[in-house]
Amino acid sequence: QVQVVESGGGLVQPGGSLRLSCAASRIIFGLYVMGWYRQAPGKQRELVATVTSGGITNYADSVKGRFTISRDNAALNTLPLQMNSLKPEDTAVYYCNIDIKAPRDLAGDYWGQGTQVTVSS
């Protein structure tokens, strides 16, 4: 089993920046996709950005050029999300997800509890 914990949410003004972090309870060596998703009130959860175990990144069109996802080489069990030029429409609960394909004994879809990001003046 893997536990996932997000941190770094808060209130920020439009145009500001925020850095979220996700920590897994263990370092994962295998095949997986780690990512950030968000859910705004009254809307479905949507993909923000993901990175594979091979280092391939994917971003939602709405955040390209503003958000950056990366693996933390110093701590392989963490996943930062740098958010710049924030807009009110970025307001949502942000969730970290780890979808493990291998090794088989860890395979599964793991979610954190979420962290609130509010962009408002």
Structure overview:
- It is built from no helices and 11 strands.
- Strand 5 and strand 6 form a beta hairpin.
- The strands form 2 sheets. Strands 2, 4, 5, 6, 9, 10 and 11 form a 7-stranded mixed sheet that branches. It has a 4-stranded antiparallel sheet with strand order 1-3-8-7, with no helix packed on it.
- With 121 residues, the protein is mainly beta.
- Helix content is 0%, strand content 51%.
- The model has no long low-confidence stretch (mean pLDDT 93).
- The N and C termini lie far apart (40 Å).
Give a concise summary:
By secondary structure, the protein is mainly β.
N- to C-terminal distance:
40 Å
Oligomer: single chain
Average per-residue pLDDT, rounded, comes to: 93
Output the number of helix runs.
0
Instruction: Please state the structural category.
Output: mainly beta
Order of helices and strands: EEEEEEEEEEE
Helix content: under 10%
Largest beta-sheet details: 7 strands, mixed
Radius of gyration: 14 Å
Categorize the overall geometry.
Answer: elongated
What percentage of the residues does DSSP assign to strands (E)? over 45%
Uncertain spans: none
Number of strands: 11
